[in-house]
C-alpha cells in the first residue's frame, strides 16, 4: 500500500516509502553508534543529559523504559474496579510479580540506579493494590454467593 503523503509523481513511478524509512532508521543507528568512544567500541558513552544535567543519559532512558513496564498491570486493575469483580485476574501471577519487584528494588539499591528503584517501587504499589482489590472483590463475591445459597435453601423448605 502506498502512503497517501507520497507525492503523485512518485506514486506514478512505483515509489515505495518503506525502504526510505528503513534507510533513515539505519542512518539514525549509525549516528547513534558514532558517539561511541573508540572505533571498535560499540557501547555509547554515558553523558550528562542536556535536559536535566544532574541525570546521566542512561538514567533518562531507564525512566522512559520503566514507564511502560511499570504501568503494564494498570489496565487489569482498572478493569477489575470497573466491573467490581475479581473474575479474570490471576492472583498468583500478580503476587509473584510483586515479590520479584521487591527484589528489583533491592538490586536497584545495590547498583544505585534511580530508575530501577523508582519504577519498581511504583510497580510494587500497583501490584499490591491489585492483590488487595482481588481479595476485597473475592470476599464480596463469596458473601453474595453464600447469601444467595441461604435464600434458595429457605425458598426450597416446606412451609410450616
User: Major sheet: size, sense and barrel closure?
Assistant: none
CATH level 3 topology of the largest domain = Monooxygenase
- Output the number of helix runs: 6
Number of strands: 0
CA(first)-CA(last) distance: 78 Å
Mean pLDDT: 75
* CATH architecture designation of the largest domain: Up-down Bundle
C-alpha Rg, in Å? 27 Å
Number of domains: 2
CATH class of the largest domain: Mainly Alpha
Amount of helix: 55-70%
Flag low-confidence runs: none
Inertia-based shape: elongated
- Content-based structural category: mainly alpha
How much β-strand is present in the residues?
Answer: under 5%
What is the N-to-C order of secondary-structure elements (H for helix, E for strand)? HHHHHH
Q: Can you offer a commentary on this structure?
A:
With 160 residues, the chain is mostly helical. It has two domains: 1-43, no CATH class; 50-160, Monooxygenase. 69% of the residues lie in helices and 0% in strands. It has six helices and no strands. It has helices at 8-12, 17-33, 57-70, 74-83, 91-111, 114-156. Helix 4 (74-83) runs parallel beside helix 6 (114-156) and helix 5 packs antiparallel against helix 6. The protein is elongated and about 85 Å long. The termini are far apart.
Amino acid at each position: 500500500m502506498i502512503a497517501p503523503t507520497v507525492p503523485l509523481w512518485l506514486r506514478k513511478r512505483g515509489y515505495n516509502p518503506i525502504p526510505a524509512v528503513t534507510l533513515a532508521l539505519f542512518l539514525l543507528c549509525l549516528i547513534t553508534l558514532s558517539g561511541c568512544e573508540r572505533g571498535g567500541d560499540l557501547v555509547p558513552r554515558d553523558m550528562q543529559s542536556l535536559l536535566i544535567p544532574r541525570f546521566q543519559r542512561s538514567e533518562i532512558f531507564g525512566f522512559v523504559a520503566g514507564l511502560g513496564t511499570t504501568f503494564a498491570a494498570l489496565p487489569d486493575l482498572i478493569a477489575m474496579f470497573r466491573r467490581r469483580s475479581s473474575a479474570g485476574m490471576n492472583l498468583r501471577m500478580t503476587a509473584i510479580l510483586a515479590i520479584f519487584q521487591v527484589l528489583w528494588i533491592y538490586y536497584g539499591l545495590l547498583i544505585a540506579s534511580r530508575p530501577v528503584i523508582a519504577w519498581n517501587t511504583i510497580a510494587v504499589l500497583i501490584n499490591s493494590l491489585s492483590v488487595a482489590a482481588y481479595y476485597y472483590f473475592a470476599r464480596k463475591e463469596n458473601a453474595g454467593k453464600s447469601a444467595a445459597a441461604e435464600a434458595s435453601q429457605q425458598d426450597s423448605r416446606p412451609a410450616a
